[in-house]
Structures are given as structure tokens and as C-alpha cells.
Amino acid sequence: MFQGETAITIDDKGRLAIPTAHREVVARDCGNRLVVTYNPFEHGCLWLFPQAEWEAVRDQVMRLPSVKATHRNMQLKLVGAATPIEPDGNGRVLLPASHRNAAGIEKKAVLLGMGNKFELWSEQAHLAQIRRTIGEDEISDDMLELRL
């Protein structure tokens, strides 16, 4: 559904404009409703899910037994922090200050379309990820099947 990389500016009120290429899809296919939450795997990144996609993820995460600390940690970061957001008439969404601060997202950010969701990265964290190469010892069996 979503793909591509866009440099984004967060305004002084904490709003970002959904790129024009994605606005129609967000309005039509997502009912103009997104959910923002933390990326539990990488610092410097927030996840923005379409509402319906989010509900499926939320339900899976909440089925994990909470007796394991790792499960509770994931539930806290994903479900506990989940906040609904809706684009305004100009296609802007207001990101909660707590989310921006925790992820270190300031004025300059990068929005990535990652299929079923968006990833919003701080500019510095995104650069660090892009500059990091995948080493030969990190290649999984599944990756060996790819024909790139």
C-alpha cells in the first residue's frame, strides 16, 4: 500500500504533512484514520498504521502472554502508547509531543512507506540506518532466496 521515502518537516506545533502521493490512499483506504505508536525494535522511529491494520497488530500483540517481561515491554510500547491521529483538511497530522520526544524526532524527519504502515524516523536515526550495510554474516536463509 505505502512505499517511498520523503523528507518531512515537523512544524512548531508538532504537525507533519502527509505527502500528497499518500493522501488519497489514507483518505480512501484508511478512512482518514491512522494510529501512531513506538517502534519497539529501533530507537528514533515511530510507526503510523492505518486504523484497520493497527487493530490486527494490536490484537496479535495483546494475545501474547503478559507473564513474560519482553511481551509486556512490547505491549507497553505498541498498545499502551498507541494514539489515534487524523489528517486535517490540509493533510497534516499532529504527533503527540511525548512520542516525538521519546523518539528524538525534531524538525527534520523522514517518512518511509513500508507497505502496511509508515515509519517516521528522526533525520539522524534514518541516516544511521541507511549508512549501515548488511554484512554477509547477517544474511538470513530467507534473504538468500531473494533475486535482487
UniProtKB/TrEMBL annotation:
Q: Which residues form the SpoVT-AbrB domain?
A: 5-53, 82-125
GO terms, molecular function: DNA-binding transcription factor activity; transcription cis-regulatory region binding
| One BP term from GO | negative regulation of DNA-templated transcription initiation
Question: What Pfam families does the database record attribute to this sequence?
Answer: MraZ (PF02381)
* PROSITE patterns linked to this entry: SPOVT_ABRB
Q: Where in the cell is it found?
A: Cytoplasm, Nucleoid
Keyword hit for Transcription regulation? yes
The principal location of this protein is cytoplasm
UniProt keyword Ribosomal protein present: no
Write out the GO cellular component annotations: cytoplasm; nucleoid
Keyword terms of this UniProt record: Cytoplasm, DNA-binding, Repeat, Transcription, Transcription regulation
Q: How does it assemble?
A: Forms oligomers.
Matches recorded under NCBIfam families: division/cell wall cluster transcriptional repressor MraZ
PANTHER family in the cross-refs = TRANSCRIPTIONAL REGULATOR MRAZ
What family is this protein classified in? Belongs to the MraZ family.
Name of this chain's protein:
Transcriptional regulator MraZ
Q: Origin organism of this chain?
A: Coralloluteibacterium stylophorae
Which gene codes for it?
A: mraZ
